[in-house]
Amino acid sequence: MTMRAMVKAMFATRLPAAMDRQIVDGLTVAASGIFRRTLTPPRLNQVPTLGNLRYNRAQASLRRTTADAVSHRRTSLCGHAAASADAAGRGDLLSVLLTAEDPDSTGTLRALSRC
Questions:
Q1: Are 84 and 112 in contact (CB under 8 A)?
Q2: Distance from C-alpha of 89 to C-alpha of 73, rounded to nearest angstrom
Q3: What are the phi and psi torsion angles at 40 (to 5°)?
Q4: In sequence order, what are the residues at sequence separation of 6 or more whose Cβ sits closer than 8 angstroms to the Cβ of residue 17?
Q5: DSSP characters for 15-57?
Q6: 77, CA 20 to 30 Å: which among 10, 25, 44, 54?
Q7: The whole model's pTM is what?
Q8: How many CB atoms lie within 10 A of CB 42?
Q9: How far is CA 80 from CA 24, 42, 73, 100, 109, in A?
Q10: 3-state secondary structure 67-101
Q11: Burial group, residue 93, by CB count within 10 angstroms (0-12, 13-18, 19+)
Q12: From the centroid of its chain, how far is CA 92?
């Protein structure tokens, strides 16, 4: 339940069901492995145990799926002023990050997210 809430806060409800499931599953495995990994000596985290392999696969899948979701959202925003305005109004964390601007910059350097 907590992982699903985190995914909804990050991406709102715009993700396909399969992508949403992959991210929730990856976060669940990663979160359960993080505590164990902080208490384990670093060399033991490199041993190919079932837990380490599962954690590494989940982490790789989570990175890939999240990168795909960000890329898809970024592609839908680039070159569309109306889409950027709509994204800012979605209220999810990804939209806020992709439409963020640096207040100390001007012109094309003001946008923090590049198309």
A1: no
A2: 14
A3: -95, 140
A4: none
A5: S-HHHHHHHHHHHHHHHHHHHHHHHS-GGGGGS--HHHHHHHH
A6: 25
A7: 0.68
A8: 7
A9: 30, 46, 12, 15, 18
A10: HHHHHHHHHHHCCCHHHHHHHHCCCCHHHHHHCCE
A11: middle
A12: 12
Structure tokens that stand for 77 in this block? 């925003």
What is residue 111's DSSP assignment?
A: B
Residue whose entry in the numeric block shows the structure tokens 């396909």 = 16
- Close Cβ partners of 38 (under 8 Å, ≥ 6 residues apart): none
Q: Which tens digit of pLDDT belongs to each residue from 73-114? A: 777 766 555 555 555 556 677 777 777 777 777 665 555 566
Q: Which residue has the tokens 């339940």?
A: 1
**What are 2-44's pLDDT values in tens digits?**
777 777 777 766 677 888 888 888 888 888 888 888 898 999 9
The residue behind tokens 């990994």 is 37
Distance CA 13, CA 94 (A): 12
From residue 4, how far is each of 21, 38, 54 by CA, in Å? 9, 24, 20
